[in-house]
């Protein structure tokens, strides 16, 4: 296939693309790849001894490939954060000139496809940035950088916390929606003399690490879908920026374009898309690592699809998904679980190097259920010669990064470490999903009255209450060696409705009530800021089920949609044994009025 790209520079609408909107021409040397062949292609490219991703990426033209005379003018140099990543003349955004200033039409941004890619605003260019947003009738801004990374300013804060006036443009923040990996801010924007107020959203992805690329694409793919679903079809171009406006910005737009192409044509053409983007803005997609990440992200999106289901359709959709196909003796839900297993990352020995250190062996209940180094909560409180390791993993909730800490039931020799974890990571809730069983080295790790001392940490019993299948106990904990730090109130929720011999809880309603009680305590006591420690015997299936259902309930509350697949995939990205068996995965799928129970509790 070959597409005419000549009209793209003038194409300013973020909408579903027509074939002529695709900003590249399929090359003969690098033809488009069928979605059905993408997994095989990526596997071959990663295994290739000679020609693979490295050679393919190095074949891109590096550096300037078109004139950029306007950007190089002395009057415009201060408008460029990086001297080697500036706007080409043929595709640059031209601002409406300010009377008396001949060079006021320049901003470091280029039209690419149906969006504008720019470098991050600097203090000197904030007004120009909002001029561009207004002049282009932009309704959505995508930001793929944090304000500060590794102690370096990556972007100035070009938006207000309340109201700010940038010369003749007034910007008012009217809503902020905080999620685990991104923030959505809504602004009311006015221009003097325009007699209208525009609503503009900023989608700020915060989950990109300081170095490299995200470990997984799940969060970014959800972010891309949010941008698509909440961007008005008839507005002006999407404005996308990171710091330089080349690397992360390029990743976002290539993924966006290729997902549209995969859906529309059943093929993707990543190589030629990147090549064409580089003809519009210098060095788009800056590293080989980013180039490989784009492939992995598109593969994950194609394999998994969009698994979100509107609340109004949940019961009917999952009813159909549970139907058994007599020819295959399978169901859609079983196939979805197989897909989940296929896209779950496999932990290598080097991923769990800290858990596998000889000095930490005795702290692990099961050597096949280990936390990867990248999500370990390292203990801070000093306790003699004890190491800073605990078999636990930080997990995101729907709205809060690292909201859960999933761990095993403390071993007799790790009870001290367990309470160090609770204190060091500002945990205000403990969820217990197994029984005390000395035969399985599951001791009672809390006091029934009085005070237990665990090294410098003191745990004082305050109260206990039994309601149906839930025992709730409140403790006061503090570090005796640092009395100036004060104390923290922690509530433990012991769930009795999941006997060890059962695969799933006795009552779904009771389990949902447990989730509601934990949420209520978190919100009332600490404004939702404290973390929740969740443990079962080994920190796997049951703990994962609790976290996944908590995430789904948050989705239902805030999005009026359910996405069980996404919830479990998010957890498994950090710990692959989360919700590891099919009966855990289907335990709370909306059958037997389960969704109605969720809605009732919410």
TrEMBL record:
Domain Tyrosine-protein phosphatase: 53-301, 333-580
Pfam families in UniProt: Y_phosphatase
SUPFAM superfamilies, alphabetized: (Phosphotyrosine protein) phosphatases II
Keywords: Hydrolase, Protein phosphatase
Top-level taxon in the UniProt lineage: Eukaryota
InterPro entries per the UniProt record, alphabetical: Prot-tyrosine_phosphatase-like, Protein-Tyr_Phosphatase, PTP_cat, Tyr_Pase_AS, Tyr_Pase_cat, Tyr_Pase_dom
Enzyme Commission number, as recorded: 3.1.3.48
One Gene Ontology molecular-function label: protein tyrosine phosphatase activity
Group of enzyme by EC: hydrolase
The Tyrosine specific protein phosphatases domain, residue ranges: 218-292, 509-586
Protein name, entry field: protein-tyrosine-phosphatase
Highest classification ranks of the organism: Eukaryota, Metazoa, Chordata, Craniata, Vertebrata
